[in-house]
Design brief:
eight-stranded antiparallel beta sheet; 44% strand; alpha+beta
Length: 149
Amino acid sequence: MLGELTANQIEQLLYAQLIGRLGCHADGITYVVPITYAYDGTYIYGHTREGMKIDMMRKNPKVCFQLDVMENMSNWRSVISWGTFEELHDPEDRIMGMKKLWDRIMPYTTGETTVQHAITDSHAKSIEAMQGVVYRVKLSEKTGRYEKK
């Protein structure tokens, strides 16, 4: 059976997942890339290095975010949402964004090969401890579909 997810089911999926796909478009090029994220009910938070994705979102802040959960080809759920990119420049905003990400991701960083992140430096009280770009996407529209056999 194919169907549409309810608003509550969409929210549950956005909160539950760690990896989604961010789609951006600028200068006639569309780019879709997987990201690790945290969701707070309004925003998707991310952290990355300078590169194509950030360059494109600075030019055109309108983006698309997609995630899916797939048990098999006949049992899956998918969410697509649209929103607006916002780069976090203020040190307090950057710290807040990184804390949301860290709190969400930390329970899953159990392996010996996990790369330690700058946010783990509890003595770092300045923005210099956080390299890269901290950003968020304010989601304005969401839709979801599923198939269940």
